[in-house]
Amino acid sequence: MKITAIRETMVPLAAPMRNADIAFDAMTASAVAVVTDRIVDGRPLMGLGFDSIGRYGHGGLLRERFIPRLLAARPEDYAAAAGDAIDPLRAWAVMMRNEKAGGHGERAGAVGVLDAALWDLAAKAEGKPLWRVLADRFNGGRAPARVPTYASGGHYREGADEARAIAAELSAYRALGYTQFKIKVGGAALDRDKARIEAALAVAGGGGALAVDGNGAADRAAAFALLGALAPYGLRWFEEPCDPLDYALLAEISAAGFLPLATGENVFSAADTRNLLRYGGLKPARDRLQMDISLTYGVPEYLRIVALLEEAGWPRTRLVPHAGHLFSFHVVAGLGLGSHEAAPDGRLLFGGYPEGVAVEDGHVTPWDAPGTGFERKENLNRVFAPLLD
Ligand SMILES: [Mg+2]
Prior knowledge:
Helices cover 38% and strands 15% of the residues. The chain is of the alpha/beta class. Strands 4, 5, 6, 7, 8, 9, 10, 11 and 12 form a 9-stranded mixed beta sheet that branches. The chain has a 3-stranded antiparallel beta sheet with strand order 1-2-3.
């Protein structure tokens, strides 16, 4: 199978919300289509990829480096061992030619969105859902019958009666079938945050069903003040309590033992993960790790991260990847990870599930359609449509 073209477009995500660190009204994402010379039902077989959330589109890097490398490669450089197919692991090695060790950051997301498209392609070539392909290849064929998911929301919005708005938002998620929730904190005065948390707890039913996310905005004093004030709520976890790369401060917060911690969405490689493990003071029995699959170069690097974590005593159930979109759902299901983060609002490009997929009692049953399923989510399908001709 030969890659004949790779098409790319950048779309606005334009969501009127913010966390303690950034606003999302100018956020963008890249959508890519990898086109091949294999014809199925009269059309070229294609793989689709959509960026993870929160790092903007990757068009420049894609056009300058990673798309040209794939297009210039010989088909035998990325061919699967069997059948007329592409092996995403071999294609990944092609993309990373002449990339120096340690130069992570934005390039990790550019490679990650192409990697997502290559896995979609591989699954479609086999006629299987992506989770099944990943489970067979990397998890001994095991895949859960139902995947735990949680509703991520509770952003700061302008002009609302915040406590009431949070309660209404989480009630809507509960009506959709969610039983676990996460809201933003640290972007307002403590009194406001406490009122928001108490409104959320009234819907969630208790601290064990509610996590909070500080988005790495707090300095040392603010982090200790906030965690100290929130510890009595017994929350499920406190996410990114301080600068995500300040491992010494994280270790100090961890040792203070306020609440279970979660972090990792701003770690972009296995090497960075190793540093987090060495110096961040996190505990596998208490905490969770949230490396974002598509922002850490996609599945090949994420597998290295999982191997490293398992070696350090972290069970896969403690891994809850950042960014709730369909691709990460398949990886959570296929690798048997702890939980899928979902933005429940299907009107968002990165929110919700494909048509006909429902959340039941906080779980989603993996679906059987081949590939990732971007085409089966109406608003995403409209984004991809211009790339398919
Ligand atoms: Mg977060």
